[in-house]
Structure formats: C-alpha cells, structure tokens
Amino acid sequence: MRFLAFALLGCQLVLPTFAQDDNNKNAIYQLSNDTEFAFVLETVLALSNGGGASTGEVLRAASQIVPGDFESWYKEFMYLGDGIHAKASSINASRFPVSAREAYFRSSSYYRVAPFFLHGNQSDSRINRVGARSVSDFKKAAALLSLPPINLNLPASSPNVPGGKFSVPARFFKAQHGKTKVPTVIIGTGYDGSQEDIYHEIGIEVLARGWNVITYEGPGQPTVLREQKIGFIPDWWNVISPIVDYLETRGDVDLDRVALVGISFGGQLAPLAATREHRLKAVLAIDGMNDLYGHFKAEMPESLTDLYDKGQYEKFDEGFFSVEASGATYSRWAIAQSLFSFNTTSPSEWWGRLPDFTLNSTMLKSISCPVFIGEGENDSSAPGQPEFMAKAIGKKATYNLFKNDLGAGEHCQLGAEFQLAQVTLDWLGDTWDHVSLPRNLTNVVY
Ligand SMILES: *[C@@H]1O[C@H](CO)[C@@H](O)[C@H](O)[C@H]1NC(C)=O
Ligand SMILES: *[C@@H]1O[C@H](CO)[C@@H](O)[C@H](O)[C@H]1NC(C)=O
Ligand SMILES: *[C@@H]1O[C@H](CO)[C@@H](O)[C@H](O)[C@H]1NC(C)=O
Ligand SMILES: *[C@@H]1O[C@H](CO)[C@@H](O)[C@H](O)[C@H]1NC(C)=O
Ligand SMILES: *[C@@H]1O[C@H](CO)[C@@H](O)[C@H](O)[C@H]1NC(C)=O
Ligand SMILES: *[C@@H]1O[C@H](CO)[C@@H](O)[C@H](O)[C@H]1NC(C)=O
Ligand SMILES: *[C@@H]1O[C@H](CO)[C@@H](O)[C@H](O)[C@H]1NC(C)=O
Fold first, then answer.
1. The ligand 6 atom nearest the CA atom of 22
2. Of 5, 65, 89, 234, which is most buried by a Cβ count within 10 Å?
3. Domain Peptidase S9 prolyl oligopeptidase catalytic, which positions (predicted)?
4. Cα separation of 5 and 19, whole Å?
C-alpha cells in the first residue's frame, strides 16, 4: 500500500515520518487525527462506491475510533461487523436475497479491516479468525448475486516455495450476458489488500461493461498467508500463469483480450508477471511502480541500511524494532505488515528479499503487450517510478496522471473509483479495438 520513509537527521535514526502524512494533509477530508488511521478509513469509506461499505456506517465507526489506538480500531470495526452480520443472518435470504447480499458484503468488509493493525503480533489469533469470517461473509454475499462467481483454488508451482507447490485462490465472475467469448480482466491486489476489496473497487465496474472478471490472491496476500503460510515471492508469473491456463479452459473467454490489473504494490507485481507471461494482452499498473526496495532505501537513513550492507543483521533488526516500538502509527503498521506479508519475523530477511522484486528497464522492455501506468497526483508512495516505467516501456506504455482537484489524486485513486474505471477500462476498450483481430462485442451490454 504505502511505504515507509524515515526522516534522516544527521546519521541518527529519528522518529520516522513518511510521505503518506503529507498526502493526507493535502488530499481528502481527514476522518482521524491519526494520519494513518485517516488513510485506512478512506480505503474503507471508498468501498461504499462499490457496495462494500456504507458511508454512514464508516463515518460512525470513524467518530468512535481513538487516534493511534489499535485496539480501539479493532473494537469499533468488530462492533460494526458483528452488527451488520447479525442483520444479514436474520434475513431469510431466499425471500430477500438482495438485502442479505448487501449486508453480507458490508459485514465482510468490516471484518476484513478490523484486524488491520494487529499484524505486529503474528500469533494474535484474531487475525486468522476474523479474516476467515470476512471471507465467509463475502462468499455468502457473492452466492446471492444473480450470477454467483466460481470459487477456485488453482494449482501452482514455484521454486521459491518449500516443496515447490502452492495454490492460487481465485474467483471467476462471469459476464452477465451471452455464451460467446468476451474480454476478461484478471485483478490482483498489493501489500495489504484482498481479492474481496478489489471486487468492490474495480471488479463490479468491469462486470458493468459486460466483461468477465477473475480476482485472485498470491503468496503474501491474506488467504494464502492464512491458509498456506507463504509470503511474497518474486516470480509472480508463477502466480499468474495458472490463472491464464484456467482461462484457456473456458469457452467464454476471448483469449485475445485478457488483461492483468495490479493495484498498489500489485502495480509492481503485475508488470513483473508480464515479463514472463506473454499470453496477457494488456497490463494495468494502478499505480505504476518498479522498485519498492529502491524507494525504501532512498528514504531510509544510510546509518541503518549500512548495517545491513556490512552484514550487521542483528543491529539492523534492532533499529527496525525500535522504530516499531516507538514510531508513528504508519511506521508501526508498515514494519509489522512487511514482516507479516513476507512470513518472517526478521527485518533483515525481509530487506534481503525485497530487491528480487525490482523491475529494471531491460525487464520492462520484455513486456510484450500494451501497459497502462497510472499515477495519483497526491500519491507519494513511489515518486518518479511511474514515469520511469513509462519511459522504459516506451511506445507500448500509456501514462495517466489522476488529478487531485477532482478527488482522484490519492494512492490508487481511492474514493474516485468511477474515474479510475472510466479511464482504465475505456483505455482497454481502445487498446483492444486496435488488436488486428475481428471485433465481436455485439452482445456486450454497457
Ligand atoms: C483532533 O485534533 C484537534 C486539534 O488538535 C483537536 O481539537 C481534536 O479534539 C482532535 N480530535 C480527536 C478526535 O482527537
Ligand atoms: C424462508 O423463505 C422461504 C421461501 O418463502 C420459506 O420456504 C422458508 O421456510 C423460510 N425460512 C425461514 C427460516 O423462515
Ligand atoms: C500475541 O498473541 C498471542 C495469541 O493471542 C498471545 O498469547 C500473546 O501474548 C501475544 N503476544 C504479545 C507480545 O502481545
Ligand atoms: C511461514 O512461517 C511459519 C512460522 O514461522 C512457518 O511454519 C512456515 O513454514 C513458513 N512458511 C514458509 C513457506 O516458509
Ligand atoms: C535487469 O535484471 C535482470 C534480471 O535480474 C538482469 O539479468 C539484468 O542484468 C538487469 N539489467 C540491467 C540493465 O540492470
Ligand atoms: C497535492 O496536489 C496539489 C495539486 O493539486 C499540490 O499542490 C500538493 O503539493 C500535492 N501534495 C502532495 C503531498 O503531493
Ligand atoms: C458475433 O457473435 C454473435 C453471437 O455469437 C454471432 O451471432 C455473430 O455472427 C458474430 N459476429 C461476427 C461478425 O463474428
């Protein structure tokens, strides 16, 4: 999602500050005095645009959450999750499927966000318990759609996983119409999101345009962490290829119009996959980033990164843990989340694995399809990286700056989902019209 940046004062590690603080002061109305809480509250509020939350419910929780207090955050979202879940389960879903569906979608979101700040203690049993409840409510809601999705667990393999095998949880949402082949969009999240979030964020927008959607999670992402205990792996093509294999088995997928969308850190993972998976016909990086490691490194005090470079791993770890213990909410969260999502308790192990994800210009040039690269005007997660990617990819790249004055300048255009969909999906339509294959979208309902 957003990444840590430490203030450098002399050579001493001082209380960390980070770019997102500035974003939050400039961008959207603040729902908490704690800038990190304000940002994550924005992510929840934004789900309202796609039926994953309700504005009044989120604003009420926001008014009760004590800035900086992780337990308060958990308590208020559990209160909301339990309350809406109770409503959902009291509804006779065969008589009132729409009411039950809407409520389960929202309780799922509130359960999902409740343990967001608990990852500092990886053995906190609430993480898995509430996470599983969130997915269960999402599945109940989705089963009540007029065309329920197919829940999948696709077999995958990677040399970076012990035993070499894992599986990719995914959900295929079929376009609402017809039996013919239609464009299909694969959507994946980033450092801390879920496939349930992205259904509300952009999945429904794709479905509204008459195309198929498949959401997924890979290693490092919630269901895979919870059920398989596998952290992020750099060979992301080994996550995507099994999805494309699956699409090839279906009769309703136009294989000449398959796109991969990556949200947040997914904006690095998606192009990474496309360097080796050449069956993709478009890639969208929301927003573009190629080097999470380089960004961290530039923002961190040399006194700290030097320790790693000199092999003083214990001291490096101590530095991180002291920041986690005393830092601002964002740094506490970011360190906890980094370790959690890499399935480690060692900062130096995490740091040592990060460079493997970096995309250099040679790798970017090896992507064979058109690439959309987004950037939010007020998103400072990876400054300069969207531009670098666009330049390295060259003619096949389309760069788009989402503007702050119309409310789309946030990281991943949070809260401006309709602008995000309009720009990205219209781009896909244009891109695919130019594919030199017969066009047959006559039965697509827009
Ligand atoms: C937020 O900060 C302002 C100014 O410091 C203060 O007046 C207000 O009470 C704070 N609100 C909360 C919810 O802490
Ligand atoms: C729910 O509604 C269906 C259809 O009207 C009915 O058959 C069923 O008995 C109801 N279930 C409950 C628990 O009331
Ligand atoms: C972490 O969570 C576990 C399980 O809930 C608990 O037993 C343990 O005391 C917690 N550790 C810390 C440091 O809070
Ligand atoms: C993830 O961490 C847990 C706890 O340390 C460990 O049991 C598990 O084997 C790790 N998973 C992988 C894929 O290394
Ligand atoms: C880019 O990365 C690849 C893969 O790690 C490596 O083989 C290549 O030498 C790098 N190219 C440049 C220009 O750094
Ligand atoms: C946010 O965007 C506005 C322009 O709309 C700019 O003036 C401001 O400096 C930006 N802030 C950040 C933190 O990027
Ligand atoms: C487009 O698809 C429809 C429905 O399958 C079919 O009837 C029609 O002949 C196709 N048109 C073209 C130009 O291929």
1. 13
2. 5
3. 244-305
4. 7
